[in-house]
């Protein structure tokens, strides 16, 4: 057998289905947060710059003749020179003033040109100045009522500190993302290990079970689905071990059951052969034993065949209305002689009123024989086996009660399992009750046991009574009824050959 479990594929699937998705999500979140913080910081810089340069907004109401003078007046009292630089340009584009004294290069002022041409009269620039420093600049262009360009004021601030803060925030986000990845990898590794190890143990155990070792078990302390799986596998191993033991016991029991009659047949066959023409009585006894043991073998083989049919779901039934009382009399009488030989009293108390059920007579007879046979063989000398038949509310109840060895309480729930034998010292294959229980189920009946070890066992069989459909039920005359009873008596005589000794077999009538 080739066993192969690709444990690495679990890691690969985890990497592809979990880790990569987490990595992509974390990366997208990190990029999004970094972009949001960057936009937030720049927007904050713009808002602060507008607040700081608010004093120069009065230039929006000044004409071009007074534009430069008003700008100079504002510059003299401007208190935010240490925070931003404000530059003012006249209508010719010449710089009127700069709060820092720095004169910018015209080609480094795209915001100025944009403000002159945009509908909002505002232009922004985020880039580097002539000295290579990163700056943020906003220009506000001023036009008079005639749409003539009056001038512009522009504020500029350095982004060095802002970008330092953006870089630090981005680094923190990146480190956090890496930390999340590491935690995911470490936790995933431990998680996969917690799955792979039990699976490997299950695989090894399955391999040992396949090779016939049912004693191996999985040790686990996990209290989750994996632990439940391991417990289930251990339970399965227990069941397989028990089934293997029962199978071996069954083979041993059946071998013994086959060997005993075969030995008797061979021994008495040889004896009869040697006695031919010299001892007619001994030959007759030998042939009787051979026939008896042949019947015993036939019954055992039939049980095995029935068990096989039951397992495959092909246990066939020939259903028809039958007198269960007559059938019970025949089955009980078959064991009267055996009971007398073993010193066991076998008694039958049947209902006065005949009970008809819809079933297979051969199969039901098989059930009665199996139950009565068990009762007789498990009852010691001087004991009693009582078979009673009663009718109760649409059903017939048959109770077989013995004073035998009984069944241990631990085994009572298992006696109807296939191959199970509570007492291995007594003959039997261990499948009779399993077959009987299946037959009862197919007859919509019940079979249940009550037993006390050392006291005895009671087996109860319940079958629904047969009721002929009203529309098909004919009106019976007294002659027809007598004819039916006469036919039933003939059937009983056929099933009970003349000459059968029933001295220990007591039939009693009891009122329903």
Any overview of this molecule?
The chain has 512 residues and is of the alpha+beta class. It is 52% helix and 18% strand. The chain contains eleven helices and 13 strands. The strands form three sheets. A six-stranded mixed β-sheet has the order 11-12-10-9-7-13. Strands 2-1-5-4-3 form a five-stranded antiparallel β-sheet. A two-stranded antiparallel sheet has the order 6-8. β4 and β5 (149-158) form a beta hairpin. α1 runs antiparallel to α4 (160-210), α6 (280-312) packs across α10 (432-442) and α7 (324-333) packs parallel to α9. The longest helix has 51 residues, at 160-210. The protein is rod-shaped and about 160 Å long. The two termini are 64 Å apart.
Radius of gyration: 52 Å
Q: Which segments are poorly predicted (pLDDT under 50) over 5 or more consecutive residues?
A: 1-5, 494-512
How many H/I helical runs? 11
Share of β-strand residues: 15-25%
Mean pLDDT across every amino acid position: 79
Numbering strands along the chain, what is their spatial order in the largest sheet? 11-12-10-9-7-13
Order of helices and strands: HHEEHEEEHHHEHHEEHEEHEEHE
């Amino acid at each position: 057998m080739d066993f192969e479990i690709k444990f690495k594929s679990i890691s690969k699937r985890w990497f592809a289905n979990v880790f990569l998705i987490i990595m992509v999500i974390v990366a997208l979140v990190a990029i999004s947060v970094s972009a949001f913080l960057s936009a937030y910081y720049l927007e904050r810089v713009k808002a602060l710059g507008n607040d700081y340069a608010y004093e120069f907004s009065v230039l929006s109401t000044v004409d071009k003749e007074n534009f430069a003078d008003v700008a100079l007046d504002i510059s003299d009292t401007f208190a935010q020179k240490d925070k931003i630089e404000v530059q003012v340009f006249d209508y010719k584009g010449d710089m009127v003033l700069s709060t820092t004294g720095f004169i910018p290069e015209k080609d480094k002022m795209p915001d100025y040109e944009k403000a002159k041409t945009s509908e909002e009269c505002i232009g922004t620039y985020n880039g580097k100045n002539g000295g290579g420093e990163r700056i943020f600049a906003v220009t506000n262009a001023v036009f008079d009522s005639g749409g003539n360009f009056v001038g512009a004021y522009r504020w500029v601030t350095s982004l060095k500190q802002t970008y330092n803060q953006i870089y630090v925030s981005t680094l923190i986000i990146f480190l956090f993302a890496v930390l999340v990845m590491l935690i995911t990898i470490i936790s995933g590794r431990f998680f996969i290990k917690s799955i792979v190890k039990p699976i490997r143990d299950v695989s090894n155990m399955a391999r040992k079970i396949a090779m016939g070792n049912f004693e191996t078990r999985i040790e686990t302390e996990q209290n989750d689905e994996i632990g439940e799986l391991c417990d289930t596998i251990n339970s399965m191993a227990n069941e397989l071990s028990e089934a293997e033991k029962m199978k071996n016991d069954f083979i041993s029991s059946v071998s013994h059951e086959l060997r005993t009659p075969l030995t008797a047949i061979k021994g008495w066959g040889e004896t009869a052969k040697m006695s031919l023409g010299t001892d007619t009585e001994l030959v007759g006894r030998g042939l009787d034993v051979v026939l008896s043991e042949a019947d015993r073998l036939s019954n055992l083989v039939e049980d095995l065949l029935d068990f096989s049919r039951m397992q495959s779901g092909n246990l066939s039934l020939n259903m028809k209305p039958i007198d269960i009382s007559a059938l019970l009399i025949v089955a009980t009488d078959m064991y009267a002689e055996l009971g007398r030989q073993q010193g066991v009293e076998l008694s039958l108390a049947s209902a006065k009123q005949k009970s008809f059920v819809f079933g297979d007579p051969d199969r039901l007879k098989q059930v009665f024989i199996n139950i009565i046979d068990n009762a007789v063989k498990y009852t010691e000398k001087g004991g009693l086996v009582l078979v009673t038949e009663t009718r109760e509310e649409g059903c017939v109840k048959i109770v077989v009660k013995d004073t035998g060895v009984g069944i241990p309480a631990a085994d009572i729930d298992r006696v109807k399992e296939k191959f199970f034998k509570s007492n291995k010292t007594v003959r039997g294959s261990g499948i009779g009750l399993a077959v009987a229980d299946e037959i009862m189920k197919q007859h919509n009946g019940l079979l249940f046991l009550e037993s006390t070890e050392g006291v005895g066992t009671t087996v109860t069989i319940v079958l629904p009574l047969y009721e002929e459909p009203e529309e098909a039920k004919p009106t019976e005359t007294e002659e027809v009824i007598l004819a039916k009873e006469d036919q039933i008596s003939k059937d009983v005589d056929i099933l009970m050959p003349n000459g059968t000794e029933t001295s220990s077999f007591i039939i009693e009538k009891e009122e329903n």
